[in-house]
Design a protein that fits this description.
Strand content: under 5%
Number of strands: 2
Number of helices: 17
Distance between the termini: 23 Å
Oligomer: single chain
Length: 353
């Protein structure tokens, strides 16, 4: 994508919100009227990770990993402000504000509509979402905001390491559950599939192709060609995800709307904290936007897996994590637009951040 606002944005990127809505509708319709398709795809699973979804996410992330200049990763430590923002927001603020908004709306404001026991399960699902910062999709949001690909990789890597240590304790604290079983094989496999493999493939592609074809061909021909896979991978991923959850979504329309309200407020609230903090600290936009996006979006693959493992496939907690997927992508696209339209708030020239 070009560094000049508005230029280089392809047809799919320009109308991405429309394509996302269409894909959600198509996915739900497939789940309702062609259930054999998601039933067949769901058989290809390992450690509660859908292999078809993993492949599509790989196709979605690989083009961005191929853009990573590894010298920018080495230099990321010289710009600590973006790392501080993402760590504090993701692990000190976000899980607790998610719990607060979910409790306020689902237990208090909607207390007369949602049974108390079910509301408790919905809150549990929201907490599972809030305690897991985004691992895969953030690369898409970084790409769409023209973020620093190398720095985004460092931010994601650090959050993944913290996730392995703090996810279970934070969930246990917020839910007061003594036995929270976090499937570490799911976490590790997801990190390997969504980060490590595309990173290695991107690095090898960059080294080999630049050596053979030259840097100009690699950046102006190869990257522009494979960049189309990012959006296509995103749209196909959404179709599959929502085909899996079509029945759940259609059978709980009112509760889905009620759950979506605190999740939406949480999304804007966390984004505002991280984004305005970055603005106050005069962080470069290429670092600031992805830092805000990581905290705002969620590692929903993990949240769904843990919800199903702890509470069951048809539980309120599982439904809440599915609603998280439903609202996240359209909201994140809206925040991408906000970030791109406010680029002028941030320093035009690189500064030490």
């Amino acid at each position: 994508m070009s560094n000049e606002s508005g230029k280089g944005i392809g047809f799919f990127e320009r109308y991405l919100t429309i394509w996302v809505i269409i894909c959600i509708v198509v996915g739900v319709a497939i789940g309702q009227f062609l259930p054999l398709i998601p039933e067949t795809l769901s058989r290809f699973e390992y450690a509660q990770v859908s292999i078809p979804v993993a492949i599509l996410i790989w196709l979605m992330i690989y083009p961005m990993m191929a853009q990573v200049d590894f010298s920018s990763i080495v230099n990321a430590g010289k710009k600590p402000k973006g790392l501080v923002i993402t760590i504090i927001v993701n692990w000190v603020i976000k899980p607790f504000t998610m719990f607060f908004f979910a409790w306020l709306f689902l237990k208090v404001i909607f207390g007369g509509i949602i049974p108390s026991d079910l509301a408790t399960e919905y809150i549990a699902g929201a907490v599972l979402l809030g305690a897991a910062p985004c691992t895969a999709m953030v690369f898409v949001w970084s790409y769409l905001t023209r973020g620093d690909a190398g720095y985004t990789l460092v931010q994601v890597a650090i959050n993944n390491l913290i996730l392995l240590v703090l996810y279970a304790p934070i969930v246990m604290l917020l839910l007061r559950v003594g036995n929270v079983s976090v499937p570490f094989d799911t976490v590790l496999l997801s990190i390997v599939l969504y980060v490590l493999i595309p990173l290695i493939a991107g690095y090898l592609s960059r080294v080999i192709l630049i050596k053979k074809k030259g840097k100009e061909w690699f950046e102006n021909v190869y990257l522009k060609t494979i960049g189309k896979f990012t959006i296509v991978g995103l749209l196909l991923t959404l179709i599959i995800l929502f085909s899996f959850q079509g029945e759940v979504i259609m059978s709980n329309p009112l509760h889905i709307v009620l759950i979506a309200i605190p999740l939406t407020i949480q999304t804007f609230f966390v984004f505002a904290i991280a984004y305005f903090w970055a603005k106050y600290w005069r962080v470069n936009h290429g670092v600031a936007a992805p830092a805000a996006m990581i905290g705002t979006s969620n590692f929903f693959e993990l949240a769904v897996a843990v919800a199903i493992g702890l509470f069951g496939l048809h539980s309120g907690a599982a439904l809440a994590t599915v609603v998280g997927i439903l609202v996240e992508v359209p909201l994140m696209l809206f925040l991408v637009r906000i970030a791109n339209n406010t680029r002028h708030w941030f320093p035009a020239k690189p500064v030490t951040n």
